[in-house]
User: Which sequence fits this backbone?
């Protein structure tokens, strides 16, 4: 199919490349000319404006918006609405609040434009591993964009989970669960780090736990990478940012009367990390960097490079 990718950060650029590899034609737009040039070199058709995006697409036109959540996403979708027409579809693949999906869909529906909210998980590894896609929208709108969804996702990694808003709701809870899983690893490794009498090699332990252990997971594989001797772990400060979804998940739990002590505690630990430094928080920061390319604060005070935090990079 022919599809536009709006936003060519780490996530958008990698998704563009995966779509191209799957045989799709991608019209690629970003404010940065160098970002457009980079994907053009991979085979995408660059567009220098949203007017050009709309002109280069064929009906039904489809645009995947992969820019930071909030005002940038709202403004981009609003601008596309002015250029799209009945039967076209806009996809929001960022970490938008699910409560915004309904009003956005309603505004687009006034023009006959479909809306799909696609919770997207995969971080900087999605290009090779595929993106888990949790999709909300009408059956009609999802059917239009499904060829691209199936290319972006690994086998069995895509589902139409419900109506408009359901995709971002499920992704929100997904990221809340990430908080709890990462916190458990961080606490366990901090306990071992404190056991000075054993002189434990924590990288070695992370490595062997990947095989046969009941706590093995992809996050543990990333912990092993982060703890490698040459990975720069000792230079990371234990300051852990939260990108919004954990807060929203805890708020939903409160509003719905659902106990969520693990996710809540993990969120509060991130708040506390900004006031104290610890081994566990260093590992949390390193894990976020490993799967999502999120920024880390270095001991020297220098800031690590951040890539696409609000647009699907994870918790």
Assistant:
């Amino acid at each position: 199919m022919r599809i536009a990718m709006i936003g060519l950060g780490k996530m958008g650029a990698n998704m563009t490349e995966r779509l191209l590899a799957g045989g799709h034609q991608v019209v690629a737009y970003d404010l940065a000319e160098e970002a457009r040039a980079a994907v053009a070199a991979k085979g995408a058709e660059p567009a220098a404006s949203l007017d050009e995006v709309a002109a280069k697409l064929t009906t039904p036109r489809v645009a995947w918006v992969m820019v930071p959540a909030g005002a940038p996403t709202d403004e981009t979708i609003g601008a596309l609405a002015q250029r799209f027409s009945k039967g076209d579809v806009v996809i929001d693949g960022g970490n938008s609040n699910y409560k915004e999906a309904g009003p956005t869909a309603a505004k687009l529906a006034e023009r006959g434009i479909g809306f799909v909210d696609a919770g997207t998980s995969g971080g900087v590894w999605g290009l090779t591993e595929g993106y888990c896609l949790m999709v909300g929208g009408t059956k009609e709108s999802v059917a239009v964009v499904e060829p691209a969804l199936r290319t972006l996702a690994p086998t069995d990694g895509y589902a139409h989970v419900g109506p408009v808003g359901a995709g971002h709701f499920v992704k929100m809870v997904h990221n809340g669960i990430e908080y709890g899983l990462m916190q458990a690893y961080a606490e366990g490794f901090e306990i071992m780090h404190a056991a000075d009498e054993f002189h434990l090699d924590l990288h070695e332990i992370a490595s062997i736990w990947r095989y046969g252990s009941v706590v093995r997971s992809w996050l543990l594989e990333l912990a092993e990478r982060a703890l490698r001797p040459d990975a720069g772990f000792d230079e990371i400060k234990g300051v852990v940012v939260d990108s919004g979804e954990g807060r929203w998940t805890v708020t939903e739990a409160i509003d719905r009367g659902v106990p969520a002590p693990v996710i809540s505690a993990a969120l509060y630990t991130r708040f506390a990390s900004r006031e104290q430094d610890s081994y566990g928080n260093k590992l949390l920061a390193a894990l976020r960097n490993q799967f999502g390319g999120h920024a880390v604060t270095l001991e020297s005070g220098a800031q690590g490079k951040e890539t696409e935090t609000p647009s699907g990079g994870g918790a």
Observations:
- The CA atoms of residues 88 and 113 lie 5 Å apart.
- The chain has a mean pLDDT of 93.
- The chain has 13 helices and eight strands.
